[in-house]
Amino acid sequence: MSTYFTKDHEWLLVEGDVATVGITDFAQSQLGDVVYVELPESGKNVAQNDEVAVVESVKAASEVYAPVDGEIVEGNELLVDEPAKVNEEPEGAAWFFKIKLGNTTQLEELMSEADYKAFVETL
């Protein structure tokens, strides 16, 4: 298992050829109280940087992007009924979707946890 981060504040936990994707703790803290989540459909093929999901808070709506090319294999239905979970467990139970990796070399473009923390400190 390996964890990667994007400049759009998404995290990916890669297990085999599937990555679980969510937003970072930093992202949820910037959004404030999450009130709505829109998930992608299973079976949808997406390209890196495509808008895949939507998260809305009392402050703003934000897109969640595909960090890599691939096929959506599952959305986290828990978030539809309990969007506040995003604030409680953003880098755990409140993942947004799982994607079957279409191009593993794209992982090399992403940040490690240490690199992401350094990136956030510059914001």
UniProtKB/TrEMBL annotation:
Q: How many and how are cofactors bound here?
A: Binds 1 lipoyl cofactor covalently.
- Keyword terms of this UniProt record: Lipoyl
Domain Lipoyl-binding: residue ranges: 18-100
The answer to keyword Transmembrane applying to this record is no
The modified positions for N6-lipoyllysine read 59
Q: Which cofactor does it need?
A: (R)-lipoate
User: Which BP terms in the Gene Ontology apply to this protein?
Assistant: glycine decarboxylation via glycine cleavage system; protein lipoylation
The answer to keyword Heme applying to this record is no
Instruction: Return the GO cellular component terms, semicolon-separated.
Output: cytosol; glycine cleavage complex
Which InterPro entries does the annotation name? 2-oxoA_DH_lipoyl-BS, Biotin_lipoyl, GCV_H, GCV_H/Fam206, GCV_H_sub, Single_hybrid_motif
Q: Which SUPFAM superfamilies match?
A: Single hybrid motif
Which protein family is it in? Belongs to the GcvH family.
Function, in words: The glycine cleavage system catalyzes the degradation of glycine. The H protein shuttles the methylamine group of glycine from the P protein to the T protein.
The record describes its quaternary structure and partners as: The glycine cleavage system is composed of four proteins: P, T, L and H.
Q: What is this protein called?
A: Glycine cleavage system H protein
The opening ranks of the lineage are:
Bacteria, Pseudomonadati, Pseudomonadota, Alphaproteobacteria, Hyphomicrobiales
Gene from which the chain derives: gcvH
